[in-house]
């Protein structure tokens, strides 16, 4: 009798909440959301006495599941100040599946509010946020995608030909083949955590449950927003 009741309850639950099983499966899927990128341009610029490299990448987030997904918008709004970015340069073997990180550039979040705790204000906004009308979130429909461009100013991964850094920058800026890539590929990681920044370290998990009717907020096993791109070919 008990087993019949449980079976009947499960069937009824699936009928009323047809997407529940999908949401559960989505939580366990590692490839539900993918991030691919294409290198658009690399420019060498002088920052005072130091040469740095401005890297432009065209990205595409793709939803590979049958569940709407929510992600923090990585570009175009103030939220990007709180999304940390990391670029890992890879030494690959015969294929891109065999890789080793040889250099990393970390671009931490920057407080956009002078004279106040910007992260505290950001958390307060998140707690009141309406996912259906927010500049901070992107909703990606099942099997849909979201495209954007991003820029990274870094001091690793590239170099100028011998002696060029001593020349006036106007002599090597925008010259084809300059700068030179030191590794054949790189990955980009976007991450956002509230741990050690608020009394509720489970805030993002709470929001994930709260926003379920709008979509599934993509978090890793530790409850942080963290997405790594596929290897990007470094031309």
Cα Rg? 22 Å
How many β-strands, per DSSP? 13
Number of helices: 4
Order of helices and strands: HHEEEEEHEEEEEHEEE
Poorly predicted sequence stretches spanning 5 or more consecutive residues: 9-26
Q: State the major sheet.
A: 5 strands, antiparallel
Shape: globular
Assembly type of the chains comes to: single chain
Percent of residues in β-strands: 35-45%
Structural class from helices and strands?
alpha+beta
The N- to C-terminal Cα distance equals: 66 Å
Query: How many individual domains?
Result: 2
Question: Averaging pLDDT over every residue, what do you get?
Answer: 81
Helix content: 10-25%
Defining key terms:
235 residues; alpha+beta; 2 domains; five-stranded antiparallel beta sheet; 13 strands
Give me a quick take on this structure.
This protein is an alpha+beta fold and 235 residues long. It is 18% helix and 36% strand.
Helices and strands, with pairings:
Elements: H1 2-16, H2 20-28, E1 33-47, E2 50-63, E3 69-72, E4 84-92, E5 99-107, H3 118-128, E6 137-140, E7 145-154, E8 158-159, E9 180-181, E10 185-192, H4 203-210, E11 216-217, E12 225-228, E13 232-233
Parallel strand pairs: 3-11
Antiparallel strand pairs: 1-2, 2-7, 3-6, 4-5, 4-10, 8-9, 10-12, 10-13
């Amino acid at each position: 009798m008990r087993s019949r009741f449980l079976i009947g309850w499960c069937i009824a639950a699936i009928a009323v909440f047809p997407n529940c099983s999908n949401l559960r499966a989505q939580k366990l899927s590692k490839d539900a959301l993918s991030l691919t990128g294409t290198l658009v341009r690399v420019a060498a610029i002088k920052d005072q006495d130091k040469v740095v490299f401005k890297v432009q990448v065209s990205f595409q987030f793709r939803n590979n599941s049958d569940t709407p997904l929510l992600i923090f918008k990585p570009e175009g709004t103030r939220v990007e100040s709180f999304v940390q970015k990391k670029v890992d340069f890879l030494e690959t073997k015969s294929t891109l599946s065999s890789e080793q990180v040889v250099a990393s550039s970390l671009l931490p979040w920057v407080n956009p509010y002078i004279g106040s705790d910007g992260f505290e204000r950001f958390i307060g906004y998140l707690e009141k946020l309406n996912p259906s009308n927010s500049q901070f979130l992107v909703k990606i429909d099942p099997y849909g995608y979201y495209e954007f461009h991003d820029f990274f100013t870094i001091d690793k991964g590239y170099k100028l030909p011998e002696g060029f850094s001593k020349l006036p920058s106007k002599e090597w800026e925008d010259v084809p083949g300059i700068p030179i890539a030191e590794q054949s590929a790189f990955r980009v990681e976007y991450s956002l955590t509230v741990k050690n920044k608020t009394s509720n370290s489970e805030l993002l998990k709470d929001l994930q449950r709260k926003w379920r009717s709008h979509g599934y907020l993509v978090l890793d096993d530790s409850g942080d927003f963290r997405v790594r791109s596929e290897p990007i070919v470094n031309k």
